[in-house]
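User: Show me a protein chain along with its predicted structure.
Assistant: Here is one chain, sequence first, then structure tokens.
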Amino acid sequence: MAVSLYTSRAVLNTLGVVDYGVYNVVGGIVVVFSFVNGAMATATQRYITFALGKQNENWLKVVFSTALQIHIMLAFVVVLLTETIGLWFLYNKMQIPVDRISAAFLVLQCSIGTSVIMILSVPYNATIIAHERMSAFAYISVLEVILKLAIVFLLLISPFDKLIFYAILFMLVQLGIRICYSTYCQRHFQETIYCRVWNKSLFKEMLGFAGWNIFGNMAGMLSAQGVNLILNVFFGPAINAARGLAVQVQTAIEQFAANFQMAANPQITKTYAQGDLESMHKLIIRTSRITFFLLFMFTLPLFFYAEGILKLWLKIVPQYTAIFLQLSLLVSIVDGVAYPLMTGAQATGNIKKFLTIIAVIALAIAPISYIVLKLGAKPYMVYVVHLVICTIIFVVRVFLIKPLIKLSISQYYKQLLLSIFPVALISTPIAYFISVFFKESHVISIFIGIGLCILVVLLTTYLCGLEKRERMFVNNKLSSVLCKVKK
């Protein structure tokens, strides 16, 4: 997370505004065409995890090979579309300086290569996560971050065109990581050795499952881009810059929680496959609770020190960036706590009704935001609208998942709210007084205040948020660490 925020700023400074903009907008062409890959990744992970839960090794090989076939087909489609429609769009519609057109063409080719590599990596990533080899996933992810950081330093000393060099290096990093994943999988998991098999029904079923995920993801994307366009219409591009910066910080923090959930998701799917619904319910509730604690630990200090942190990071902070960030972090908490319910629904495979209703409600964000701004509201009100609708979606998700996994609504809310409310109610006023005492006027004051806020959240979580068995687990871990330190 820290390296991500640093590299984005460093690459911007090294490439310059024009080249950085060219890289992002040209790379965005590929993102549009590979949009389906995210949904396909969810489908692949669900089917591989479900097969593991059933403990059927032969079926597991069929699932992996079918998933790889689908991703090879998807990669071919992305290449075909980007080399035709993408190239036409690049040369005929995009506003790129004449002297950077050739560089933009090479960036597009590297972006296509990067996209293909990432698409073909999905079945291997899904297998590692399904087998819960989180240490391998963590080590390779850390290696990826280190390599991306190395790109920044190579750019500084590069005698070549920095934009082209950056695109080539980024593609090579993805290729190296792809080799790491596939090598690890083929050495540890027998099913990842491709076998020539054709299962038409499974092929169609996986594509159908991915299709409904695409519909749900598209609703989220349309809402986000719709709000972006609406803000541009009412307030101009400066407000989009503020929103973009807030989204960047929000994404980094959401990724932190998503990586924790990545460890829990396979167990949720496996317990459903084994018919152990009681354990599944406990996992969903526990994952929601711990997600809240993790997000709250970052959100609380960021909420009170938003302006100071943004000034340290950016020097010049566009208007409304701080309040955009504060409200977007609240949205992240609601979405993050609700996401395990989505994992539970996906485990059943019966997601048509679930995703359709959620998508329809999510699509209301943009039109309601437009009406609110038309009535004369401030720009940050679009985030208030988003927060209210996300809260409504959270409640609806609980009611939709009840018949799918027989989850008790009263049990869910009771076990969830009784643990997170005390933490929020005790930590928030204490953090506020800390922010008043350690103001944003000095760097050291900001860091002390942030550290104290995090400490307050950790202590209140330990005392009021964790169950007795969880506290014992933490105590044992701390004791073992202290024993190693003493030795």
